[in-house]
Amino acid sequence: MSRTDEVVDGIKRMILDGVFRPGDRLPVEKELAESLGVSRGSLREGVSALSILGIVNTRQGDGTYVTNLDTTRLLAPMGFVVDLQGQGDARHIHTVRRLLECEAARQAAVTITEEALGQARELLDEAARVVRGARQDHERLIEIDIAFHRVIATHTGNPVLVGLIEAFAGRTVRGRLWRSLHETGADQRTHDEHEAIWRALAARDPERAGIRMASHLIGVEESLYAAPEDGERISGPGAD
């Protein structure tokens, strides 16, 4: 193990043990380096790595602080793994994403608030207006799409589930864009599928919400698998 890795593991262990808590300022460089048994150079490299991971934040002239350790931010680097895996057999990515999204729909059917249902309703109403428009705004439909799924994930009350679903967003956007641009009627189908999911959520029916989400995502997957090879390379796996 390199000295930099020792710094990373050492500080992470201190956080796990409660030595440092979210928002705490780390000791000055000399003191922390001595406590970890490393040089200041190795300490700086380790702190830099922790900063990239979203674990600490260095403020110019003020010191280094433990972040709020937001789960979504900490899981964000997984998005690169998703993109990397998607360059090969994307079915693995599809399978995991479907499991996550279907579970989110089931949980949200129980825990989602009336206010959140109203937010989702407003998104779908706007999507309906865009779909009916003379000139469809695909980019706006994608934004609405992402926001709709985010409302569902957020209201599961499970921050880990939210973070994992967010990690799939990059390729999701590209897949959704390919579908809207290349498939006749894809925007309307996506909207209808979202409506079915919303009705299941509003009815507080976990099983139906999970089934509707699964049907939606399987349809998207089938569309992408049927796409020309070049189209798949552009879109990647997943779509909302």
TrEMBL record:
Gene3D superfamilies in the record: GntR ligand-binding domain-like, Winged helix-like DNA-binding domain superfamily/Winged helix DNA-binding domain
Record domain HTH gntR-type: where: 1-69
CDD domains, sorted: WHTH_GntR
Entry keyword annotation includes DNA-binding: yes
SMART domains the record matches: FCD, HTH_GNTR
SUPFAM superfamilies associated with the record: GntR ligand-binding domain-like, Winged helix' DNA-binding domain
GO molecular function: DNA binding; DNA-binding transcription factor activity
Recorded superkingdom: Bacteria
Signal peptide: none
Pfam families: FCD, GntR
TM helices/strands, residue ranges: none
Protein name (Swiss-Prot/TrEMBL): FadR family transcriptional regulator
Organism: Streptomyces radicis
Lineage, highest ranks first: Bacteria, Bacillati, Actinomycetota, Actinomycetes, Kitasatosporales
